[in-house]
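User: Sequence recovery, please. Input:
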């Protein structure tokens, strides 16, 4: 059984996840920053949380190109 770490939801995390959903599950850090109008450190913190929870993975680490493996909102109905 896979026990993934819970991902804390806030408006920024929801916005980051929405970008992945709207792009077919793929995005770069820079693209997410531009799309949600947040700062790179704020977006990077959310991506780090998603990565730690195994919700996203690197497709190409040098360009910070990510793939969404699982939207944690699907497992947390009260998010």
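Assistant: Recovered sequence (79 residues):
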């Amino acid at each position: 059984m896979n026990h993934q770490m819970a991902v804390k939801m806030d408006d920024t995390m929801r916005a980051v996840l929405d970008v992945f959903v709207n792009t077919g599950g793929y995005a770069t850090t820079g693209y997410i920053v531009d799309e949600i109008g947040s700062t790179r450190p704020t977006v990077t913190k959310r991506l780090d949380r998603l990565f730690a929870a195994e919700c996203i993975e690197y497709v190409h680490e040098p360009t910070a190109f990510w793939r969404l493996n699982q939207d944690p909102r699907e497992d947390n109905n009260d998010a």
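Residues 33 and 41 are 9 Å apart (CA to CA).
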